[in-house]
């Protein structure tokens, strides 16, 4: 065997061993990898069910887009240890996503053309405010926003209510079945947020909701002035970086921007493969989502990078987006994060005005 070939095989083995060691270090019990496989399965199952002719009934791609998105993010947000509790929460989370999609369609019907993004402001508030109701509440708030975001991307209107209802049903089925099969092999691990000071919890979540909503509103107005390529991405960024302290928000912004600035260029470098080998790209995207599930509780920057990579390559594989649009994911995430920090600095003093203290920070 030639020396060059031997060196190549040796390098490949070292790389595989390094990846395996990293997986074991991040997820020693394989529990998060199982969750990653489950959310990928839920996404694929919902998309597959939506293509069955007897189910789709000529509803086009909207049904699959909504059902797969509802199932995926419900699986991400769910964090219970028993099958019954998980099935219950997944059903509620999918229902919340459907409700969010309906709310966007209703609100958008009362807005002038081009202002549908304003409906996302209410979802941004829910992401922050619903955290006061614990794990399930936080997931429901997130799912309301996700439902609005997906409906906005699909251009859903009040005429699509039946499609949204069917998507909710398919998403519930597609997310509950894999969780039932994973059983006790999956043990959720959640990041431990810093507890708010005594007596300020309810007000803290209200302020968090107002901060996210204010940043989202600023992005909508900015988009009207300068014409952001995908302003919904910036809104998403500023919504999910808001934490219960200024330092926490700045840290999440730093991690989100850092991960995105790595994931997006790496994905753009894979674009030539996306058009010629879509199956390979979807496989790599699935692996990236497993990494996302493994990293999310403790390594937010890795999770953001993995998701940015998966999003860009799958959008490219669909062939509906230009390189300029895909690259906008990076700089619009920076805009969203920057506005998130600006709003935090602006509104963080509010508890001091109400309580007369400085414990909120």
Q: Could you characterize the architecture of this molecule?
A:
The chain is an all-alpha fold and 361 residues long. Helices cover 77% and strands 0% of the residues. It is built from 16 helices and no strands. The chain has helices spanning 3-26, 31-49, 53-56, 61-77, 83-109, 119-129, 134-154, 161-182, 201-226, 231-240, 246-269, 271-276, 278-295, 300-318, 323-347, 350-355. The longest helix has 27 residues, at 83-109. The protein starts with a helix and ends in a 6-residue tail after the last helix.
In brief:
The chain is built from 16 helices and no strands. It is mainly α and 361 residues long.
Proportion of strand residues? under 5%
Secondary structure class reads mainly alpha
Number of domain units: 2
Question: For the CA atoms, what is the radius of gyration?
Answer: 21 Å
Number of strands: 0
Q: What gap, in angstroms, lies between the N and C termini?
A: 64 Å
Identify low-pLDDT runs: 192-200, 350-361
The number of helical elements comes to 16
The string of secondary-structure elements, in order, is HHHHHHHHHHHHHHHH
Largest sheet properties: none
- Average pLDDT figure: 82
Task: State the helical fraction.
Answer: over 70%
Q: What's the shape?
A: globular
């Amino acid at each position: 065997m030639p020396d060059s070939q031997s060196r190549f095989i040796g390098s490949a083995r070292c790389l595989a061993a390094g990846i395996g060691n990293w997986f074991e270090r991040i997820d020693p019990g394989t529990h998060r990898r199982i969750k990653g496989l489950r959310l990928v399965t839920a996404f694929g199952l919902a998309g597959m069910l939506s293509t069955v002719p007897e189910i789709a009934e000529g509803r086009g791609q909207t049904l699959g887009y909504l059902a797969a998105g509802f199932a995926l993010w419900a699986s991400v947000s769910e964090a219970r240890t028993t099958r019954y509790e998980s099935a219950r929460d997944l059903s509620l989370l999918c229902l919340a996503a459907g409700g969010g999609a309906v709310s966007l369609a209703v609100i958008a019907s009362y807005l002038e053309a081009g202002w549908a993004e304003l409906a996302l402001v209410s979802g941004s508030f829910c992401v922050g405010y619903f955290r006061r109701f614990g794990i399930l509440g936080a997931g429901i708030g997130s799912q309301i926003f996700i439902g609005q975001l997906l409906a906005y991307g699909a251009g859903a209107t009040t005429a699509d209510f039946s499609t949204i209802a069917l998507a909710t049903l398919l998403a519930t089925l597609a997310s509950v079945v894999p969780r039932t099969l994973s059983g006790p092999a999956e043990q959720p691990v959640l990041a431990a947020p810093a507890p708010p000071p005594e007596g300020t919890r309810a007000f803290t979540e209200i302020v968090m909701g107002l901060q996210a909503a204010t940043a989202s509103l600023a992005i909508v107005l900015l988009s009207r002035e300068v014409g952001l390529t995908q302003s919904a991405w910036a809104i998403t960024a500023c919504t999910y970086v808001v934490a219960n302290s200024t330092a926490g928000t700045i840290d999440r912004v730093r991690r989100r921007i850092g991960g995105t600035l790595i994931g997006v260029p790496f994905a753009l470098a894979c674009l030539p493969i996306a058009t010629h080998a879509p199956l390979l790209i979807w496989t790599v995207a699935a692996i990236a989502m497993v990494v996302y599930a493994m990293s999310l509780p403790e390594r937010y920057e890795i999770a953001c990078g993995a998701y940015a990579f998966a999003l860009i390559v799958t959008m490219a594989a669909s062939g509906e987006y230009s390189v300029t649009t895909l690259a906008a994911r990076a700089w619009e995430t920076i805009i969203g994060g920057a506005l998130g920090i600006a709003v935090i600095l602006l509104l963080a003093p509010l508890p001091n005005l109400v309580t007369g203290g400085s414990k909120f920070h």
